Amino acid sequence: MPGPEGQRLVLHVGAMKSGTTFIQSRLFSHRETLAERGVRVPGRQWRSQVLAVQQLLRGGGPMWDRHAGGIREHAGTSIVTSELLGPAPAEVARRLVDSVGVPVDVVVTARDLNRSVPAMWQETLQNGRSWQWHDYLAGVEADRPSTRDGRPATDAGRAFWIQQDLVRIVRRWAAVVGPERVSVVTVPPPGGDPELLWERFARVAGPGLEGLVSAPARNESLGAASANAVRRLNELLDEAGMPFPQGHQLRKRLLTKQVLAGRKGVEPAIGLAVAPWVTEETRHQRAGLQQLGARLVGDWADLTPVDVPGTDPATVGDAEVAEAAIGGLAGLLVALVSRDRDDGSAAPADS
Questions:
Q1: Which pTM does this prediction carry?
Q2: CA Rg value for the chain
Q3: Which residue ranges in the chain fall short of pLDDT 70?
Q4: Strand ranges across the sheet with 39-40
């Protein structure tokens, strides 16, 4: 049932690695200012939205009910942002729309496919996977939507395309809210104005977002050596009976997101030249999106695949991987000792 005039939910559903962290960080850093402008961002921090959405995906729960209730009661625009909702099944999309009881405008941010491949590989490593680089590439190519017949044949391909099949994501949400209420917001190409993504998002979300600035938060990728070190670490932890997400706080939030991501400037980046299949798949995605009739905010040319400068991770030597691993261990110990000191719980020195 539509809410009173002026009520609506702007729902940002990804895709993953398409500037989502930047948008989420800026929304929550200006949450109080946005509230003064009549824009509600549910939850005291973005993690609150993550936990609420996780409950929604499992069928519902008190956190999501509080979010939905606040959206129904708010007289203006509310904004929820979570990549977890991009590949959500149709029943979850309908449950969300029914629970908030106001019109829903869906935003899908989209980045060029070739830049998404290495970004997603290192992200899967941070989430406990251990695919070799070239095995991952082969899976992504083999299971591309334009040629796949049925379900994905590889775990790597499924993991990538469930987050990056833009046509599927838009089709799913358009079927629930209507294509006229789905916007594809393109990420500017390398070298473009970093503020342009925010300006495009604001064009959908409304004038309440205009003029807000803050240091752009980034979900930094790993360098090639650190990515290989994390891949091997995941194998060893699996063998030790500690599969992900066991140790999530140490493995992802501390070791990879803080310590190893900080080494990116001293390591070669993960590089990838544009393969013919990537160009062809981009054409299929663009045609599919245009056929669905979603609103474009940006430029289709932004999705043209470009080479990613850097190194083939398979060519990184053992010495470089070992240096990254030792650097990660040292950084992890420094962080843990510092935390113990701050807590006043440092162990006494041996006598």
A1: 0.93
A2: 21
A3: 1-5, 215-219, 344-351
A4: 39-40, 77-81, 8-12, 104-110, 182-186, 295-297
